[in-house]
Design goal:
11 helices, L,D-transpeptidase catalytic domain-like, 5-stranded mixed β-sheet, alpha+beta, single chain, 18% helix, 3 domains, 409 residues
């Protein structure tokens, strides 16, 4: 059956009152009730709390293993966005992207400010003050699309940003591609450069560094330059808040455990239509897997890269299909009007109490539990991804808002 969210339901969710546990936001817009975690947790390593939408996206992007621990409480930034600072970056809620395919969280573009504070000032033409025998000068130059830098990037499987005039190659590019760097980190602001014995590369939203072993990490520049970035880092008391752990946010135990639940790296879900199988990953570690049921013709499940964008613990789902079995309208109103007026020939359907609903695209397709069949491994739905009930219960807690969903053949 189809897990479908109507346009009216989406609008109501967008207008929902903000959660009451947000604080110190200075009037900026904050997320409504989108299915984010209701638990506020304490991170003893940095003596700060994290909750709700920030907690979800932080977990989705790899928690402390990628952008570090929180170094501030949530606040309203001067840019007008709801924000929270972490060791390596500042997360910002972008409401203008809330009902698009683009994630509605990104990183504040602090990279240029950090770059200037570390390496001096810029000239009037915007180029680095790199002269005077500075061997790093070429790292700050702006290159053209026909330059050797751009050509080498293309030849070696890297990328070149024509606007910033810099390329991303090698293991920096591997990290950039596997962490949605184009959205979260933004454009490169330099070529790789050696600083204090470490190779780093500056981006709009963060700074990447390469360890001696060749591992790429996000540099803790926000923690190091919190004062210059106007971040309030005063620690807060734990009081009665629970200490953060990954499994604390789970709604049940993993039914098919395959890997360390605390593995490093961001969360992502892979769904194969040809194999009717779902795999849940934490970085490169396979955490769990299950057979699924995707869309049956003519309502095939959309392929592409998406994100968990709206969650409901349970939902009544309704709509109508035409004579060919194609879903032509969503929502209870459409089902009620089937067979009347212009809807003559349409057949209504209603599925009550669909559990653990996780919408991931703009076609109102979702991951959700299915209690009406046990034929997983075969196409059965009107477009959504049907899950065994026990697996859907676990996945609902494991996959926060912002988790990437990759659907392919």
């Amino acid at each position: 059956m189809l897990a479908a969210l109507s346009t009216q339901q989406i609008a109501r969710a967008d207008e929902a009152k903000p959660a009451t546990y947000w604080d110190d936001t200075q009037g900026v817009e904050i997320p409504g009730e989108l299915g984010q975690s209701s638990i506020q947790v304490y991170v003893p390593q940095s003596k700060h709390t994290i909750r709700g939408y920030m907690l979800d996206y932080w977990r989705a992007q790899g928690a402390a293993s990628v952008y570090g621990n929180p170094v501030s409480e949530p606040y309203g930034a001067k840019s007008g966005y709801y924000s929270q600072a972490f060791e390596g970056a500042i997360f910002q809620f972008r409401p203008e992207y809330l009902w698009t395919e683009t994630p509605s969280m990104t990183l504040e573009p602090v990279g240029r400010e950090v770059l200037e504070s570390r390496t001096g000032q810029t000239r009037r033409d915007g180029k680095r003050q790199g002269g005077g025998g500075d061997r790093r000068a070429s790292a700050w130059r702006t290159y053209g699309a026909d330059s050797g830098v751009a050509q080498r990037a293309a030849a070696n499987g890297g990328s070149f940003d024509a606007d910033s005039g810099h390329s991303v190659t090698g293991n920096f590019n591997d990290w950039y591609a596997s962490h949605e760097g184009a959205w979260y980190l933004g454009a490169p602001l330099s070529q790789p450069v050696n600083e204090r014995g470490i190779v780093v590369q500056y981006f709009e939203g963060a700074v990447l560094m390469r360890s001696e072993q060749g591992r790429v990490l996000v540099a803790p520049v926000v923690r190091e330059q919190a004062k210059a970035l106007r971040v309030q880092t005063a620690p807060v008391a734990q009081n009665d808040l629970p200490e953060y752990s990954e499994t604390l946010l789970w709604t049940t135990d993993n039914p098919n455990p395959l890997g360390d639940p605390n593995a490093s790296g961001r969360k992502w879900i892979e769904i194969s239509i040809s194999q009717q199988t779902l795999w849940a990953y934490q970085g490169g570690t396979l955490i769990s897997s299950t057979l699924v049921s995707t869309g049956l013709d003519p309502n095939t499940t959309e392929e592409g890269l998406f994100h968990v964008r709206y969650k409901l613990p349970t939902q009544d789902m309704a709509g109508t299909t035409n004579a060919n079995g194609e879903v032509v309208a969503l929502g209870q109103e459409a089902a009620d009007n089937a067979g009347t007026g212009t809807e003559i020939g349409e057949t209504p359907y209603v599925v009550q109490d669909v559990p653990n609903v996780m919408y991931f695209n703009l076609d109102a397709e979702a991951l959700h539990g299915a209690y009406w069949h046990n034929n997983f491994g075969h196409k059965m739905s009107h477009g959504c991804v049907n899950l065994p009930l026990y697996f859907a219960t676990w996945l609902y807690g494991w996959a926060p808002l912002g988790t990437e969903v990759w659907v392919h053949q």
